[in-house]
Fold these 4 entries.
Entry 1:
Amino acid sequence: MEKKRPPEPEYPVVVGSFGENSRYRLVWLRGIGWEPLAREDFEARVREVFPDIDLDDPEQVHWVDGSEEWPAWHPPENDEP
């Protein structure tokens, strides 16, 4: 039996929620799929795929948790003396 693929989201970009201690959000790009992106890489990567996108338009970029924020991330401390 062949598995049916779930429908793609209606938005060109979907920004997934984030977990603790991670500097990345999973971002879904239509036609490409999910990618982990850091805040500093987000706009450049989205514009690479969708050059004319309006990042502030909720019809084009959907934030799953509605926060439009990035996780506060700090590199792990080195336990060595």
Entry 2:
Amino acid sequence: MATATTVQHVKKKPLPAGLPREWYESHNRRLKAMRLAISLLDSGTYDARRATNRKIRTMAVRTGIHRPSNVTCKMVRAFIMES
């Protein structure tokens, strides 16, 4: 019989202040791409070629993430290739 495991969430820390706006934008883009890549891998999309922009954006809607840009979709595919 399978047992349920509990997931402990990591305590969030505030981002460092005083960095250029581009750093915050790229940081948040990487986080979004990572969340989407994990969701796609969990759903069975293991090949980056099958992770089309449409599939990535559909997954974003399912998981409640704002619609990703083309750059973010490209980053998602790069994360999937690395896994």
Entry 3:
Amino acid sequence: MANTPQAKKRIRRNAARTLVNGNRTGRIRTFVKKVENALEAGDKAAATAAMAMVQPELMRGVAKGVLHKNTASRKFSRLTKRLSALA
């Protein structure tokens, strides 16, 4: 258990950041899921529109430190590959 005031503050801060980062991660997952659902349905127009929304979300996650840059690039690359194969 934390004894010093600094350690107690770190626990409080970490709990707050965990909530914020969890919300960011969930938001990214939601956008990715929209693309995947459109791809499975075979709706290229909806998938393209969703892809335009996914890319900034992934990059925002990288900028905020929620995702690693390579992870975001890999996710976007795989989605793009599936979208181009839909044609």
Entry 4:
Amino acid sequence: MTQPHPDASHATPGPEARLSRLETQVATLAEAVRVLARGLEDIPSQDVSPEEAARGARLAHELLLSQGL
């Protein structure tokens, strides 16, 4: 009895594909952290509303979701 040939969609990605995906994920995480930090910044010369922090958190969350993280 022979095993069915594995479908290419179930094949493990090669090192280059995995590295590319990892680079994309790291870039997305870095951008999410920047957005979140910007929303949480407390600059003495400016009034920062609580809505700004919430907006930063929402944007960071949306970035992560867009990349499946």
